[in-house]
Amino acid sequence: MDKSGSNKNENLGEFNMGIREDVGGILNELMERAPGDVTGAALLRPDGLMIASVLPQDTDEKRLAAMGAAIVGTSQRTCDELSRGDLGEIIIEGSVGKATFSFAGTKGILAVLSPKDVNLGLVLMEVERTADKVKEVMEK
């Protein structure tokens, strides 16, 4: 779902329109709770497809979904191979901003974009809260 509320993803298999709308609402709530701290949010499938998103117009949602799923999958495998336990959040810091990835249950990956000079503690708190809400919707 983009900022206008339209859904660009029609082939999502098990995720019906109601679930996508509920998740889109949760992502919009995140954006409203953390204005300035969160510039975009998306829920991805572990296989690299987008479920719902509220992203800046210059963000390629297909690329975010594919790369986010690959990053999380590789990171989980690394945790497994090195006996580091369950994967928590992944934070990628670039020169102009951050991308945070977290599991939202077993069927979703939450991706959150934020500016470089953000209060990371607040963002992580919002990521956890949002992931819990999404998990409830996804696992109904």
From TrEMBL:
Residues 24-114 form the Roadblock/LAMTOR2 domain. InterPro entries: Roadblock/LAMTOR2_dom. It comes from the Archaea. SMART domains: Robl_LC7 (SM00960). Pfam families: Robl_LC7 (PF03259). This is Roadblock/LAMTOR2 domain-containing protein. It comes from Methanobacterium bryantii.
